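User: Hey, my collaborator sent me this sequence without any context and asked if I could get a structure. I don't really work with proteins. Can you help?
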Amino acid sequence: MSISLLNRSCCSPSSLRNAPLNAAQAQAPAGKSAPAPQPLWQKLMADTFEASPPRGAGRAAASSSVSEAGPGFGAPSAGANYNVNEPWLSVNNTGSPYNSNMQLIEPGQKGQFKFTNTFTNDTNAPQTITLWNKVGEKGGPNDGQNFDKSTPKTFTLQPGQSQVVAFDSNSSVAWCASKDGSAKPGANSGQTWGEATFGNAGTGWSGYNTSQISPAGHSGNMSITNEATGKTVTQANAWQTPQDDPAGKDVGVPAGPMNLRTVLS
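Assistant: No problem. I've predicted the 3D structure and written it out in C-alpha cell form, which is a compact way to encode the shape of the chain:
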C-alpha cells in the first residue's frame, strides 16, 4: 500500500523492464492513489506481477453467475478494469456486494477453489486478521486500506487455529494482524502486511509479498508460502522502502491456481 496515500510502493520502471515476471520472482502489491499526475511516485507503485506483459490489456472483469475460481462468490464488481499504461491505477474485482470476492471456507472445501490462503496463528495469543480489497468500496484503486472509508473482512484466530479464505479471480488484497484486535481506522498501521493478487485480469499472473513500508510499520512476524512451490517470503525480506529491488521480495506465479499459506508467529 502506500505512504499516506502512498502506503505501499513497489518497483521502478527500470526494474519492471529488467525483471519481467517470466522468472517466478517478481512482485509487490501497492497502496496506490490516483491524485493529480505525479509520474515518479506513481511509477514506483506498480506491483511487478500486476505489470507483467499484458494479455488482453484493458479487459474488464468477465461477468458470469459462477466464477471459474469456484462457487459462492458474488458477481464481479462493476467497472473492474486492467489499466495497461498505469497498472497501479487498475480497478480489480471486489465482488458485488463489496467483499464478496473473498469467503471464509472449511478446509474440506479447499479443493473447490482456484485461489486460497490458509491463515495460521502460531503465537500464544489470539490474533484478529484484517483482510481488505485494495480497491475501496467507492471504487478508489487504493482506498481499501483506509478502514474509515472501506470495510475489511475480519476473523480471529486462537493460538494454533487456522482459517482458509478463498478468493475470486482478479482480486488484489492485503492483510495484517490487527495491532489492537479491531478493524477500526488505523488498525492496520504498525504491522507487517501481506499482499497478494489472484489471477490478474490483464496479465493472468498471481503473486504475493510482505511489506513493512511506512505506515505499515516494522513489527509482526509473518511468513507467506506458495504451497505448490514452497517459495516463502517473511518480514525478513519485506519491502522496506519504495526503492527496494523486487528480486527476492516479490513472488510472481504464472496463470493457474495459487494456494498460499500465511503463518503469524
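In plain terms: The two ends are 22 Å apart (CA to CA). You can pass these C-alpha cells on to your collaborator as they are.
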